[in-house]
Design goal:
With about 240 residues, this protein is of the alpha+beta class. It has helices spanning about 10-70, 75-90, 100-105, 135-150, and strands spanning about 115-120, 125-135, 150-155, 160-165, 170, 175-180, 185-195, 205-210, 215, 235. The strands form two sheets. Strands 1, 2, 5, 6, 7 and 10 form a six-stranded antiparallel beta sheet that branches. Strands 4-3-8-9 form a four-stranded antiparallel beta sheet, with helices on one face. The protein is elongated.
Length: about 240
């Protein structure tokens, strides 16, 4: 079968141009409608933001008026700040009074017990310095040192028990004989050691001192200051002996 195109080229081009024009017009209308919708949506969002900001501004002004109407507000704020500072300092403050319980726990029993003349605690270097005397001489001093070096500090951290040595880097000072307040011959001594930070920390939970002879809970410093543990510093004897 033979087909013959009876539409002239000019007319065919005209029809094609009309179809393209109609397509462009339809697309333009669609884009315009979308643009109008977007503009309306943006307008609603922007209007909502303005209304919300106005509401917040009103709330701020209302609360400001309430605060300014409170009598002595500046004094109240100062007191609250001071209370917060006190609470912070209280939580950071160390339980230094545990030191007396610790010394009582590590003091050997008679006849090898010792008397303390001076007890120095230095938190910045975590050291304890003991100056004291022993009636039983060097035997009592060695027993005292061994008791300290074999004592552990037991604390509770994250629900688990942690053990640390009570003393590290023990450094012995001078030792010499002298006389106590009753005129008895005693050995005078001094030494320094480093203690674990948890020993005096209030955030360590329970704190237990485990000596070779038993355990003592020093968390709340129950024992206080034992008078029998301390004595006046011995004086030089006329026939002083040195180690």
């Amino acid at each position: 079968m033979i087909e013959i195109n009876l539409i002239p080229d000019v007319k065919r081009e005209l029809l094609r141009a009309k179809m393209m024009r109609n397509t462009v017009t339809a697309m333009s209308i669609t884009v315009s409608m979308i643009a109008v919708g977007v503009a309306v949506a943006l307008g609603l969002i922007f209007g909502g933001q303005i209304a919300l900001e106005a509401l917040h501004d009103g709330t701020i002004k209302s609360k400001t008026r309430e605060l300014t109407s409170i009598e002595d507000l500046d004094k109240l704020v100062t007191i609250q700040h001071q209370l917060a500072t006190i609470n912070k300092l209280s939580s950071e403050r160390q339980a230094d009074s545990r030191l007396f319980d610790v010394m009582t726990a590590v003091n050997p029993v008679a006849p090898n017990s010792i008397k303390i003349a001076t007890l120095k605690l230095k938190p910045e270097s975590r050291t304890i310095t003991i100056e004291g005397s022993a009636e039983n001489g060097y035997i009592a001093l060695e027993i005292f040192k061994k008791t300290i070096t074999n004592t552990t500090v037991q604390t509770t951290q994250n629900g688990q028990e942690v053990k640390q040595p009570l003393a590290e880097n023990l450094q012995a000072g001078e030792a010499s004989f002298g006389e106590d307040a009753n005129g008895k011959k005693v050995l005078r001594f001094s030494f320094t050691f480093t203690y674990p930070a948890e020993l005096f920390s209030k955030t360590s939970g329970s704190v237990v001192i485990a000596t070779p002879n038993g355990k003592v809970d020093v968390t709340d410093s129950r024992l206080g200051v034992p008078e029998s543990l301390f004595a006046k510093k011995p004086k030089d004897a006329s026939n002083k002996e040195k180690n």
